Structure to design on (629 residues):
């Protein structure tokens, strides 16, 4: 389950070169572990031999290919062309595409209208174009390229957009296909900064508050294997989705019990709500088009994570096949919450018992353009797993004519966003982050149970007229969950194992943020992201069904991925099943989001439900354990 090492990356590239599939003109988009079959992994015991395979996606001679490589045999096991699809972008494309408009006379003339003839401070920021249905553009590798003026800018490149001007480029031919100029908008005057020196520095410097482990860490990290408290799991880092947690288990008094086979991000859909031609296409698939792992930022000790955290590196291939190490892409640390994991004070006999709660956090922070995301997987001592998504960074901004809401143009300018500075608008948008949750609750024989709350009217004696009861039913086949999440609760339970009272052991999915897309179902950007129309989906397990918008969402105009798979209506009762949960939230910007946003957290929880025979945190030691003994 480990990700590819630098040596394995080099070996895989060597196989491709020896087979004549990778010359100097070709580029590697992605090179990752080709995961072993699930039943093989579950049956494996230490000491047994196992296969190691790699999967590569390549661009060669204007075509897209998939390669499968047997690392042990040093041989090419598969080679297929992928037709009518565009792969994710690669870094060198993003770096070079911004220079193409600067050579186009149409773009140069449009810049001259804005009084800009020296382009040394003009930074062009290539963006994916969304679904492409125009036959004339079929097969082209497209990017839309807006630009910003970074004159005087320090740490904020988003404060002076060169508005109403955008170029569309074809990466394959390295040409500018079109230049759209909707008219000159005067640039915002201030140069924003979020440096401490520019903050005003009114607040007193506080005394240090630190998370320390003076007697050593309780976390054990051995390669990809992590152990803490009663938890164990495997972690690897993928270029596309970032952190992948596998084989999540809980030590229940000496028995290693399965909870989830795999937990990872799947796709992120971010549509902006501005109908202008230079904005309407902005509906990104941050994972499938760019890559959370590729864009993972280095986590800083003492700032992003406690200084005593464990830091993991990510080995990826660059476009030419050389292994590159991304340092500190994930951190793992424990922290006290300051809250009790349980407590009770009994006034009748003057007793009080409580236990402190500590958590284990697995964290990564991909940076996709102006947005910084933090993805946390948090384990506590009572068997809970919190999945949390933090939104940080800088708002995507648009230049407008209005400097104040009293200006005559303000109503029109602020129809789709919020003024955050004079002549600068932060545009309304959504975030839909889908997580793939491959549950194995006490094994693979599971079912999804919906507990509805039915109101029962009482007709007997007494003044009470009504109450609610739980009405449980298994979900028999895959698809979106259409029951409102506040009208029921949902559990994955074992069909084979029961606890001591006879209940089937299970884990509940507790919803957190659950906004769904409001876009029209026939909107092309919504069709490509149809998974965002529902918060919760269930599907039958399939090894290659991992990405909610499909394997290649870039430019794809078709419905693909999760909605396409579940159209088969496969049975999921007493089967190996997968849940898909979308953390959805709308962002109406505010003044406080500028020039850099305070973090806002969203998420959901996986919580034991009759999984244990009693409170699993009952044996958590007290603070003063010696006194308690």
């Amino acid at each position: 389950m480990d990700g590819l090492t630098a040596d394995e990356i080099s070996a895989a590239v060597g196989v491709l070169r020896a087979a004549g599939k990778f010359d100097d003109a070709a580029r590697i988009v992605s090179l990752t572990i080709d995961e072993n079959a699930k039943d093989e992994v579950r049956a494996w015991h230490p000491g047994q031999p196992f296969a190691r395979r790699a999967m590569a996606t390549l661009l060669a001679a204007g075509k897209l290919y998939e390669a499968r490589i047997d690392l042990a045999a040093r041989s090419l096991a598969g080679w297929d062309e992928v037709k009518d699809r565009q792969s994710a972008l690669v870094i060198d494309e993003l770096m070079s595409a911004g220079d193409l408009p600067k050579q186009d006379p149409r773009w140069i003339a449009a810049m001259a209208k804005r009084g800009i003839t020296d382009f040394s401070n003009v930074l062009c920021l290539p963006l994916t174009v969304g679904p492409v249905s125009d036959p004339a553009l079929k097969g082209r590798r497209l990017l839309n390229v807006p630009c910003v003026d970074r004159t005087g800018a320090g740490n904020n490149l988003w404060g002076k957009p060169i508005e109403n001007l955008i170029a569309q480029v074809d990466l394959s031919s390295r040409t500018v296909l079109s230049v759209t100029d909707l008219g000159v908008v005067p640039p915002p005057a201030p140069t924003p900064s979020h440096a401490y020196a520019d903050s005003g520095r009114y607040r007193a410097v506080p005394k240090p508050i630190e998370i320390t482990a003076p007697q050593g860490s309780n976390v054990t990290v051995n390669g990809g294997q992590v152990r803490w408290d009663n938890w164990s799991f495997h972690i690897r880092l993928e270029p596309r989705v970032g952190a992948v947690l596998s084989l999540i288990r809980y030590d229940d008094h000496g028995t290693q019990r399965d909870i989830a086979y795999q937990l990872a991000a799947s796709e992120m859909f971010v549509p902006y709500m501005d109908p202008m031609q230079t904005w309407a296409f902005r509906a990104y698939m941050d994972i499938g088009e760019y890559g959370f792992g590729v864009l993972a930022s280095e986590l800083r000790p003492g700032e992003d994570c406690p200084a005593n955290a464990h830091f993991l590196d990510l080995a990826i291939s660059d476009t030419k096949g050389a292994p590159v190490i991304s340092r500190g892409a994930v951190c793992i640390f424990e922290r006290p919450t300051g809250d009790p994991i349980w407590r009770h004070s009994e006034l009748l006999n003057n007793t009080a018992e409580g236990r402190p709660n500590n958590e284990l956090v697995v964290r990564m922070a991909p940076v996709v353009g102006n947005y910084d995301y933090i993805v946390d997987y948090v384990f506590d001592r009572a068997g809970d797993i919190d999945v949390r998504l933090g939104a940080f960074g800088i708002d995507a901004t648009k230049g407008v004519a209005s400097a104040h809401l009293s200006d005559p143009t303000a109503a029109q300018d602020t129809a789709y966003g919020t003024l955050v500075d004079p002549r600068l608008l932060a545009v309304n948008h959504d975030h839909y982050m889908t997580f793939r949750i491959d549950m194995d609750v006490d094994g693979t024989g599971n079912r999804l149970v919906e507990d509805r709350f039915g109101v029962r009217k009482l007709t007997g004696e007494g003044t009470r007229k009504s109450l609610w009861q739980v009405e449980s039913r298994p979900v028999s086949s895959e698809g979106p969950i259409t029951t409102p999440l506040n009208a029921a609760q949902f559990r994955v339970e074992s069909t084979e194992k029961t606890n001591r009272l006879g209940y089937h052991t299970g884990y509940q999915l507790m919803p957190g943020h659950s906004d769904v897309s409001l876009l029209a179902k026939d909107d092309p950007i919504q069709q490509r992201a149809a998974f965002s129309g529902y918060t919760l989906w269930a599907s039958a397990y399939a090894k290659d069904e991992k990405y909610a918008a499909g394997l290649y969402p870039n430019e794809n105009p078709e419905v693909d991925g999760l909605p396409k798979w579940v159209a088969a209506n496969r049975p999921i009762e007493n089967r190996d099943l997968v849940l898909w949960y979308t953390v959805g939230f709308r962002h109406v910007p505010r003044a406080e989001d500028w020039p850099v946003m305070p973090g806002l957290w969203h998420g959901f929880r996986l919580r034991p439900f009759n999984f244990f025979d009693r409170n699993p945190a009952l044996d958590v030691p007290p603070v003063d354990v010696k006194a308690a003994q």
